[in-house]
Specification:
The complex is a heterodimer. By secondary structure, chain A is an all-alpha fold. Chain A is built from 16 helices and no strands. The chains are: A mainly alpha, B alpha/beta. At the A-B interface, helix 2 of A face strand 18 of B.
């Protein structure tokens, strides 16, 4: 007699998935066309056929332990060829949205940031908070409120001190929630791939190899959009996404630079503000290029998603649109604040600047709690895929990392091959 | 009011319906668009599960037609329109000229005189034919056809000159026949689903990817290879053959329904291959094997137990060039063993499904559903694959049932 295995279907999981946009999951009859036509599906653990079965059966823990759903970029090839119109691409999209909610902590924030009303409410609330903070700060600085006198300069209404006081705790929350989500996800996918030690924990690479062997190559792949560009039906979508990703990286660099130059060096030492930078400043040029890339990128993504949704190639959930509009709002208010500052129109410049701060904070807060979290989990899945390969080859995991050669030597070894 | 019955389609279902109705004492008109009776069955090598040749059933029915004066049949004939109602249908039929006379039962001399060669439809283009030809060796009526569309006037003259006097008749022209009938049996049958529409299988790119109906012709003693299964690119005997099940069937992008016969056809074709070479490797890629009923289930069991027959649960969704010349790789996910698989084979067979003829050519006055199957109405009775995808046995049964229904339509009105 073969061993009997009892399956406990989690029906609420199936229902939740169907509500999140995976309502076609039950049409699947497991022919596996999807796994073959998928340009990203791997040889030994092809997807998305197995995910469709697990989802139908309500095997929530199997899905949770599956890194493969994050290797999908929802190009829609599988849905186009699916003989049953079961739309595996959309089902995987819904699985990912639910996974983000599952790993989010506290859950209330993910509930809030996964619907339009909640996001608009958050932006409005953030606007009010910034407004009050600016008012209190004006009492301290003695500038007139809400429109400081003279040429428009945003440090007149809010300097880095109140901004950092508000933003840094949010940064801490986002970092904590992201870390927690990633670690739980890591443990689940380790269990899912059977790579757990006898103590029941998933092995993790040491910090050195994590960066040199797994994270950096994964990031290189992500920055180049190597896999996204292999997608068939929605190849064009990768272009806008790439532009957007690069603009985010550039803006992140600018923010970091300004934080160090202005908040840490300039103001404490010279008692004057580094910002606003003149337009010829290389940092400013860099930032403006990034801002234009952001607007163009998000517009391309919007157009492509709209077109492909209308054509029925892929389905778009509320969360997809929320993220697009939120990013668009960040870009538009950012550029608006800069333009009105240059035009010196105080009545428009200051409110738009406050609105910009509100949208930026909301977008940042959304990192672990909304669709934006795909950057955390997809990157983790990319890293894990490499790590798992090494574990299966006996080159990593379970204390094997110690034998990993230093990066330089390793490169030489590869060169010899 | 009319007591006669029209049967549209002279395949296995139509012939059966016609003889059954005629033997009940009714006048029957049988209309066939090809130049011969027998339809798709005539193209088969063997029936499943008994593995007897199609002549078994067809010969007997041809004899029943020949000996029954109540049956009038037209070949190369199309039903142009149907009007009226039960008991009183008016039907217009266009009969194309055959270009020959009934004594023309052998056209070797004409073939030798003809230059033009066109793909032979009967063999799905696996061979060619001349503009004068016998549709196939067992053709009934056993009379050659002159294909004036594919021959220049001087070539026709040359053929006429080469043939015995009185065999070729170029004076024939298209005729219109008007009939008044009491009931209509629609047995227009099916055609193999066009494999070029399944774009991911790239049928036209590979010579050694054939359809299951092409396989029937290759295996048939009257086929282009004399009954030996050889692959088209080099006429070599394949050492491995892959079967791609559900090629176009059970697919909302193609045929939304199960074509019912393709699983059994594949199992049957494995027996052809094993008879030719017991060492041949056969790979069957499937979603589900559908072998309904005790006899078919036993047949499946028998084939499954054969040596070197592999069943892989997973649909082929891509075909790549193989490493050996002419070979192809079938790509599927083995959903039981796990993992994506590329299976190299010498010859691949697409188990294409049955598309009802009504999907692409509809007869005005007859109602069809979205797939192209005939919608039954009082006095308009579909049978065989015009009704739903079925095997030969069920086609015969449905034809007998249709004959009875047609008789009832007339008898009720007369009573």
């Amino acid at each position: 007699m073969a061993e009997t295995k009892h399956i406990e279907p989690d029906l609420s999981f199936v229902r939740g998935l169907m509500e999140a946009g995976g309502d076609t999951v039950n049409k699947c009859y497991q022919c596996a066309t999807c796994s073959v036509v998928c340009p990203l599906s791997t040889e030994e653990r092809a997807f998305p056929r197995k995910e469709m079965l697990w989802a139908q059966w309500g095997l929530a823990s199997k899905i949770a332990g599956d890194a493969d759903v994050w290797l999908c970029h929802q190009c829609g090839d599988c849905s186009a060829y699916c003989p049953r119109d079961a739309k595996p691409g959309d089902v995987l999209g819904a699985i990912r949205l639910n996974a983000i909610k599952y790993y989010a902590e506290p859950k209330a924030l993910s509930e809030m940031l996964s619907n339009s009303a909640g996001v608009i409410g958050t932006v409005v609330a953030a606007f009010i908070v910034w407004f009050i903070v600016a008012f209190l700060w004006s009492l301290h600085t003695g500038e007139s409120f809400p429109f400081p006198e003279g040429t428009v300069a945003y440090h007149k209404i809010l300097t880095f001190v109140p901004i950092d006081l508000i933003v840094l705790p949010i940064v801490a929350l986002v970092v904590w929630a992201s870390w927690k989500g990633i670690s739980n996800f890591w443990n689940d996918i380790s269990a899912g791939s059977g790579m757990v030690s006898y103590t029941g924990t998933g092995p993790k690479p040491a910090i050195g190899p994590l960066f040199s062997k797994y994270l950096i190559p994964a990031l290189q792949e992500i920055f180049a959009h190597k896999r996204f560009e292999e997608c068939g039906q929605t190849k064009e979508r990768a272009k806008g996404h790439k532009l957007l990703l690069w603009s985010f990286i550039m803006l992140f660099i600018v923010t970091g630079l300004v934080f160090v130059i202005n908040d840490i060096i300039y103001v404490p030492l010279f008692h004057e503000h580094f910002t606003p930078m003149p337009l010829w400043n290389p940092i400013k040029i860099f930032a403006n290029v990034a801002a234009i890339m952001l607007i163009v990128g998000i517009w391309m993504i919007y157009q492509m998603r709209k077109q492909k949704t209308e054509e029925g190639v892929l389905k778009s959930s509320e969360q997809d649109w929320i993220l697009i509009w939120l990013i668009f709002a960040v870009g538009a208010t950012g550029i608006g604040a800069e333009l009105f500052r240059l035009m010196n129109i105080a009545v428009l410049a200051y409110p738009i600047y406050i609105l910009h701060l509100a949208t930026v904070v909301t977008l940042f807060l959304a990192v672990p709690y909304s669709k934006f979290a795909h950057l955390l989990y997809r990157t983790t899945a990319y890293v894990y895929q490499r790590y798992e390969e090494d574990m299966k080859a006996g080159k990593a995991g379970f204390g094997m990392e110690k034998e990993v050669l230093p990066v330089g030597e390793e490169a030489q070894e590869e060169g010899k091959e | 009011m009319s007591d006669s019955i029209l049967v549209i389609g002279g395949g296995f279902s139509g012939i059966t319906a016609a003889v059954e109705a005629a033997e009940m004492g009714y006048d029957v008109y049988l209309v066939e668009k090809e130049s011969y009776l027998g339809g798709r069955v005539a193209q088969l090598n063997k029936y499943f599960p008994k593995l007897c040749p199609p002549t078994c059933g067809l010969e007997m029915n041809f004899k029943r037609i020949k000996t029954n004066p109540r049956i009038t049949f037209y070949t190369l004939a199309d039903v142009e329109s149907v009007s009226g109602g039960p008991g009183n249908f008016n039907v217009t039929i266009k009969v194309k000229p055959r270009g020959t006379t009934p004594q023309c039962t052998n056209c070797k001399a004409g073939e030798a005189a003809a230059k033009t060669e066109v793909p032979d439809e009967f063999n799905f283009g696996l061979s060619t034919r001349k503009p004068i030809y016998m549709p196939h060796p067992m053709a009934y009526p056993n009379q050659c056809v002159l294909d004036t569309e594919n021959a220049a006037p001087d070539e026709i003259e040359a053929i006429k000159a080469a043939m015995p006097a009185g065999h070729i008749d170029t004076s024939q022209s298209e005729e219109t026949v008007n009939l008044n009938v009491g009931a209509i049996i629609v047995a227009t049958g099916w055609k193999p689903y066009d494999p070029n529409k399944i774009t991911n299988l790239k049928f036209s790119e590979y010579e050694n990817v054939i359809t299951n109906m092409m396989m029937e012709r290759l295996a048939s003693p009257s086929g282009p290879t004399g009954g030996k299964v050889l692959r088209p690119s080099d006429n070599e005997e394949p050492k491995s053959v892959g079967f791609v099940q559900c090629a176009g069937s059970r697919d909302v992008n193609h045929l939304g329904f199960c074509s019912y016969i393709c699983c059994m056809a594949t199992l049957k074709q494995i027996t052809y291959l094993k008879e030719q070479n017991p060492d041949i490797e056969c790979y069957v890629f499937y979603i589900d094997i559908r072998s309904p009923g005790r006899k078919y289930e036993n047949f499946y069991k028998k084939v499954k137990e054969m040596d070197k027959v592999h069943f892989i649960k997973g649909k082929v969704a891509d075909i790549l060039p193989g490493s050996a010349p002419g070979s192809v790789k079938l790509v599927a996910e083995d959903t039981i063993g796990g993992g994506k698989k590329e299976q190299e084979v010498d010859l691949a067979v697409l188990a294409t499904g049955m598309q009802p003829v009504g999907a692409e050519s509809k007869i005005p006055g007859i109602e069809y559903d979205a797939d192209g199957f005939v919608v039954p109405k009082e006095g308009i009775i579909p049978c065989g694959c015009a009704m739903r995808p079925i095997d030969v046995v069920s086609s015969g049964q449905s034809a007998t049932a249709a004959a009875l229904k047609a008789v009832q339509t007339i008898a009720r009105r007369a009573g």
